[in-house]
From TrEMBL:
Gene3D superfamilies: THAP domain. The lineage of its organism: Eukaryota, Metazoa, Chordata, Craniata, Vertebrata. The keyword Zinc-finger applies. Pfam families: THAP. Residues 245-279 form a coiled coil. Signal peptide: none annotated. Residues 1-79, 112-194 form the THAP-type domain. This is THAP domain-containing protein 1. Keywords: Coiled coil, DNA-binding, Metal-binding, Zinc, Zinc-finger. It comes from the Eukaryota. PANTHER family: AGAP005574-PA, THAP DOMAIN-CONTAINING PROTEIN 8. GO terms for molecular function: DNA binding; zinc ion binding.
Length: 295
């Protein structure tokens, strides 16, 4: 049984249709695996999925036959037996995706006004505003990367229309221009003033709480390796589900077994030759060939 909650079994004479997995089509195979949503699972040659998990639009009739056939782009989409923990995880992933889409909207417009890109900054940019706003250094990728790291805004990418107000720069970063010209920034200016403190991570809060309960006053330094661990796990998962690597591992195991069998056969032949030479030597002393052992 491949799909969650499906009790249909494949046997000779069953009334339902069962389909093999497209092992030769890598892109379509990954779509099928993603739709089934089984952890650390890869289909084999004997894996089957029944017709209950496909819609009517996934089938097509072949000319001259009455048995429908799956389309080349068909993907299983009907699943009713997902466990509760998987449903909760899928719900969280959907919410994270929606939150990411909201954060990707870099411009918050209200009656033609744009909000400062800094976190929780309420200054608005519009024609005739009192505050001074600066554009993002799109022409300088190195400086732009420093600005993005300083702003520390999740799921955000700067655009040409993004603005940041002067409240996030020091006095040394701003150059006052005489006359009616607006102030400018120095060439290597980076925003560094952010009054709103970011929320602490859960691990750090739990560590401080445990330290206060135990009466420890030592500072706990906790490094966050979220990105490195996620990248390592994704590489391991990718290697585990890669059909090429799976096929190569099977080939290596097959060759190792063949070599082991050949060694056993050579050893048995060597013992047989040794016994024959011994019998020949006892009967006649004519044939005395030197025995050479191979290592």
């Amino acid at each position: 049984r491949v799909a969650y909650g499906c009790n249909n079994r494949f046997y000779k004479g069953c009334k339902k249709q069962f389909f093999r997995f497209p092992l030769k089509d890598r892109k379509r195979l990954y779509d099928w695996i993603a739709a089934i949503r089984r952890k650390n699972w890869m289909p084999s040659d004997t894996s089957r999925i029944c017709s209950d998990h496909f819609t009517h639009d996934d089938y097509m009739l072949r000319p001259g036959t009455q048995i429908p056939r799956l389309r080349l782009d068909a993907v299983p989409s009907v699943f009713d037996g997902f466990p509760d923990d998987l449903k909760e995880r899928l719900k969280r992933e959907k919410e994270d995706k929606e939150r990411k889409e909201v954060h990707n909207k870099t411009e918050v417009q209200t009656d033609g006004k744009r909000l400062c890109v800094a976190n929780r900054c309420t200054n608005l940019f519009y024609d005739g505003c009192e505050n001074v706003f600066f554009r993002m250094p799109m022409e300088n990728p190195e400086l732009l990367g420093k600005w993005v790291l300083a702003i520390q805004k999740k799921y955000w990418k700067p655009t040409v229309s993004c603005r940041i107000c002067s409240d996030h720069f020091t006095e040394e970063d701003i150059i006052a221009c005489p006359g009616t010209q607006a102030p400018k920034l120095i060439s290597n200016a980076v925003p560094s003033i952010f009054h709103v403190k970011r929320k602490r991570r859960r691990k750090k809060r739990m560590a401080e709480l445990m330290a206060s309960k135990l009466g420890q006053k030592e500072e706990c330094i906790i490094e966050d390796h979220t990105y490195s661990s996620a990248q390592t796990n994704s590489v391991k998962r990718r290697n585990r589900f890669n059909p090429i690597i799976i096929c190569l591992n099977k080939t290596i195991k097959t060759l190792q077994r063949q070599v082991q069998r050949q060694r056993q056969r050579i050893s048995s032949l060597y013992e047989l030759i040794k016994e024959l030479r011994k019998k020949n030597k006892e009967s006649t002393n004519i044939c005395q060939m030197p025995l050479e052992s191979t290592t």
